[in-house]
Amino acid sequence: MPPERDLAQAFKVSRASVREAIRVLEAAGLVKTHVGDGTYVETGSVENLVEPLATVVVGGRESLLEIFAVRKMFEPHLAYLAAERAKADEVLELKKILSRQRKKMASRGLVTEIDYSFHLSLAKMAKSQVLLKLYNTLAALINQTREEFLQEGDRPQKSVEGHAEILLAIEKGNPTLAKKAMSSHLRNIEREALRVGRTS
Is 117 within a domain? Predict the structure, then answer.
């Protein structure tokens, strides 16, 4: 799991609150803390770890904030690993997905499924079964934000631009740049989704 300070910043809570939450998760057998090494999700318990989040994430602006908070915690790391481990054929597939997204956006078609395909491909390219399982478990919640807001305002264009930056970093084989591009992408679409949410 990310360090306490990152979790505290992501959820806008104190580090004491984060430590308490980790203690609860550890008592439930969902995570294990190794002194001096960090906290790890126990193998096979990813769904159990995510389930409480799923029950909390319900309608409205608070829902979006929760979903994006979770996405910002682990998707930049997925992009980092994807840039580090991507094979040439995987990068080519990502290019094809982005090309389809651009064409669909130009024709004002629904791009939610293509957007999902881009992020799922990144999760697979990271070659981490735990992170892929986490992404798949959260996919329904993540897709909720796409279904509701991806077609509104400037978000389709923001999505394409963000994906292009991520792809460029992966093509360069630059994990740090890919992580930064994903973080920026998520911030931008979160800002747009919340703006549209206020006016819809």
Answer: yes
